[in-house]
Amino acid sequence: MTTVWPRIEPLLARVEKPARYIGMESGSVTPEHRNGQVSWLLLYPDTYEIGLPNQGLQILYEILNERPDACAERAYAPWVDLEAELRARGLPLFSLETHRPASAFDILAFNLSAELIYTNVLNCIDLAGLPVRVEDRPDDAPLVLAGGHCAYNPEPLADFIDAFVIGDGEEAVGEITAVVAAAREHRHSRAQLLRDLATIPGVYVPSLYEVHYDGPAVAGIEPRYPDVATRVEKRTVADLADWPYPKHQLIPLVEVVHDRLNVEVFRGCTRGCRFCQAGMITRPVRERPAEQVRTMVREGLRRSGYDEVALTSLSSADFSGIDDVVTDLVGDQEGTGCVSLSLPSLRVDAFTVGLASQIQRVRRTGLTFAPEAGTWRLRSVINKLITEDDLYASVDAAYSQGWRRVKLYFMVGLPTEMDDDTLGIAELARTVVAIGRRHTKGATATVSVGGFVPKPHTPFQWFGQNDIPELGRKVGLLRDALRRSGAQVRWHDPAATFAEGIASRGDRRIGRVIERVWRSGGTFQEWSERFALDRWLDAMAAEGLDPHWYVTRHRHRDEVLPWAHISAGLHEDFLWDDWQSALAEHGLPDCRWTPCYDCGVCTDHALEHVVGSAVPPAGGSQGTGQDLSEGGAVPVRFLEVARAR
Amino acid sequence: MRGEAGHPIRVRFSKLGKVRFVSHRDVARAVERAVRIEALPVAFTQGFSPRPKVSFGLALAVGYESRAEYLDLELRDAVDPERLPAALSAALPPGLDVTGATALAARAAALQEAVSHVGYEVHVADLAPAALTDATHAALAAETLPVPTTRKGRDVVVDLRPGLEHLDVVGEGPAAFLAVELSTRTRSARPAELLAALRSLAGVDAGDGEDRVLRTHQWIERDGARLEPLEADRAPLASAEAGPRALEACA
Fold first, then answer.
1. Is A74 helix (H, G, I), strand (E, B) or coil?
2. pLDDT score recorded for residue A623
3. In the beta sheet, which residues pair with residue A76?
């Protein structure tokens, strides 16, 4: 059976948004599956609308399809209505391009972007017709791989995933392809193939490791064989200029999230926000040359017909080439039509607002700032060094330049947080509304509040998460304080935050819990209408595991963390010292433009920052007022020099 | 609404194959992208959030195919309509193909108001041709054809009979299909509702199979004659020449 389309087609008339299952996006390819090619099915275990824009998946899709020895197709989690139709007829999960059954591929590779989608990973493996547990898979079953940010704590999925890729996948997917092709040629058993894969840097094969326990605690994680690495180091692409992907971004026929041209301007972030896993695990900063960004924007707009482009990164106003790229876009409206530009940014300063007003001449509806915490004290703890003056000046600039709504993002449940900090959010919001009303009577502000979940490989990995009643109490405090204030409060369900906490810092035993939640029908757990905490608590109880031990307990320094054998390149001393600095309310400026703190990423791995300028754009500095113009001790390479070689 | 100085163009396109599962709204977005890819000098709406001036005719239900979809484009500069089918088809997803275009008379009525009749070919699943023929005769003989359905989220009963202009079984055996013409002027009937009524008359429930619906025609009735929308409001040749440029939308 090469395609199940004739059996899928009649089902599509009865499901919601059937165009999610037909493929045909501009930029997609229809592989021939030639003999000898290693075939990959790249899976995003959430709906098409959420998964399609994922840049990681699109980059690997192109890289694999450019290789003569590989081909790649895609699949996303079918919504519950189609899943029911498929199961009722014994039909499998299928690829979008040629509608092949998932089990006809050599490799199923999952992108893991959030912990609550773990049950969907099991559901997809099961819908593919494979045993969900690694040890039950026959020799000829496809390999099940996973990568993405959540792979930095692979243990909760260790029972279900044959191998994880830690870090950037651009190079690793080619090496895996070669190993799988060689194993097939030499007729290696599945067990031997897994040993082969473990020789690839950045590849972690959980079944080759034994976890020892001491009561509830993890006592050690050791390889079962002497030639298997005791610690798996992440992969890092040294120079983004070598990887101008995606060259042909997928243009979906269905409206998706981030439905626009997305061009990655740099990878990595050294702002050093202590809660932020992405910032910690993707170091160092690697900028794309501004000229390459301009080309990707120009060509991307021309071929896609999009009228919006996002310059993506963890903080795009920090991109050295930002002025050039924005000027280029704004000046080139003749060729591109009316293009608007969006710019995710951590910076809260006049420069960012100025950029925004330059590029968003129409549609000035909402502008978003993320101070994350309500007081300077707590922002020093989390190292989000935005002063109130900076925030108010930015907000003033935004309202005065025509924006009518400001969105403010905060977290509750941060380390050392006291009620004064929570109430500080209300005070900031009230002041923001008051500033807005000076400019326009209809000024509003929206305050979005999320519960903080400590993440592996961050300075806060030792912190005990707030429990549900405490998060609920803080949200209540804030709502009371903001009644009749003109600011609207939105908050994330503390129960879902708790479940995320179980999966986020879970060990290998949590796999059984995820399996139970899935078997009880708990798919799409990040969708509030599908989430039920009881499934998680019942599963924990059935496995004899105490959720509070996993979620709300403070870890101590000498304890073996479940991800101790996975390395994001960060010295454990650096993380611990940064945790102590946090508790001492001591902030650290960005190491891109200041002396090195020896976090370990550059110094131990022969890496360096790749940036275009020794100073931040417009001298911005997160508002610390510090002189950041002295580089020097930081391992850094400047782009113009590098390009001229 | 059309500006005095604009160059309205009417375009006919087909929607065939897998792309039939794309919603009306998403087809509209694909057309907007195609217009930008081809850099057509389209006029934009004024205001806070300018949109290209593209207006669509009657919505086609998700899953239906069509050889007769229409849309009107408002251009700032004159463009040879003959150039449009190839250019737009290349920029549209497979299955969406522009099959005709014409310069439109100024102040032509919008498609949504002008179109009076729609024709369909329907392959009815799991209903034998004989039973289908009997149900067809019963439907045409009936004074009223009430079907329970939903309108704007409310359960209502609509009478399909006044809008049913023509109904006929064409061909034999598995290839037999229903030729249907519906008026859009009375409370408009939908093919799915008509099929529900026919199944009800035949005393059978909908099975596992999929009814395949193909829209074959749209007509504008004028002075007793039915006109194809490309013919109905074709511009006199002179107005296809370049007129004064409309305001730059991005200014």
1. strand
2. 36
3. A44
Give the C-alpha separation, A86 to A82, whole Å. 6
Say if the Cβ atoms of B33 and A304 lie within 8 Å.
yes
Contact B19/A at CB under 8 A? yes
User: CA nearest A149: which of A243, A244, A82, A234?
Assistant: A234
Strand partners, A408: A369, A447
Can you tell me which residue has the tokens 């694909």?
B30
Q: How far apart are CA A327 and CA A321, in angstroms?
A: 10
**A287 membership: H or E segment, kind and range:** strand A286-287
Question: Is A551 buried (19+), middle (13-18) or exposed (0-12) by CB count in 10 A?
Answer: buried
Q: Which residues of A touch B211 (CB under 8 A)?
A: 13
SS (H, E, C) chain B: CCCCCCEEEEEEEEECHHHHHCCHHHHHHHHHHHHHHCCCCECECCCCCCCECEEECCCCCCCCEEEEEEEEEEECCCCCHHHHHHHHHHHCCCCEEEEEEEEECCCCCCHHHHCCEEEEEEECCCCCHHHHHHHHHHHHHCCCCEEEEEECCEEEEEECHHHEEEEEEECCHHHCEEEEEEECCCCCCCHHHHHHHHHHHHCCCCCCCCCEEEEEEEEEEECCEEECHHHHCECCHHHHCCCCCCCCCCC
Cα separation, A345 vs A355, whole angstroms = 11
Q: What is the pLDDT of residue A590?
A: 82
pTM: 0.93
CB contact under 8 A, A24 and B34: no
Contacts of B91 in chain A (CB under 8 A): 305
Whether omega before A246 lies within 30 degrees of 0, making that bond cis, reads yes
CA distance B245 to B243: 6
Residues A253, A305 contacting (CB under 8 angstroms): no
Q: For residue B56, which phi and psi values (nearest 5 degrees)?
A: -100, 160
Q: Is the pLDDT of residue A621 over 70?
A: no
Chain B interface, best mutation among A7, A14, A21, A24, by max B CB count within 10 A? A24
- Both tokens of B248, joined, read 């730059």
ipTM of model: 0.90
CA neighbor of B83 nearest in space, from B103, B63, B66, B68: B103
Name the least confident of A404-408, A515-519, A607-611: A607-611
Q: Are B218 and B57 in contact (CB under 8 A)?
A: yes
Higher pLDDT, A327 or A33: A33
Smallest CA–CA distance, residue A10 to chain B, in Å, is 5
Report d(CA A533, CA A541) in Å as an integer.
12
Backbone angles phi, psi at B123, to 5 degrees: -95, 110
A376 sits in which H/E element: helix A376-382
Count other Cβ atoms within 10 Å, centred on residue A224.
9
- Distance CA(B230)–CA(B111), nearest Å, equals 11
Looking at residue A218, the DSSP 8-state letter turns out to be E
Q: Work out the minimum CA distance from A86 to partner chain B, whole angstroms.
A: 13
Size of interface A-B (CB pairs under 8 A): 71
Instruction: Say which range, A397-401, A435-439, B216-220, has the weakest mean pLDDT.
Output: A397-401
Return the H-helix or E-strand segment holding A470: helix A468-481
Cα–Cα distance for residue pair A108/A137, rounded to 1 Å: 13
- Of A460, A492, A463, A473, give the one whose Cα is nearest residue A419: A473
- Tell me the H-state helices in A154-289: 172-185, 190-197, 277-281
Of A9, A335, A363, the CB nearest to B49: A363
Cα angle value A344/A345/A347 (rounded, 5°): 165
The CA dihedral of B129, B130, B133, B139, to the nearest 10 degrees, is -110
Q: What percent of chain A has pLDDT over 70?
A: 93
Q: Which residues of A touch B22 (CB under 8 A)?
A: 19, 22, 253-254
Q: What span, in angstroms and rounded, lies between the C-alpha atoms of A106 and A182?
A: 13
State residue A641's pLDDT score. 37
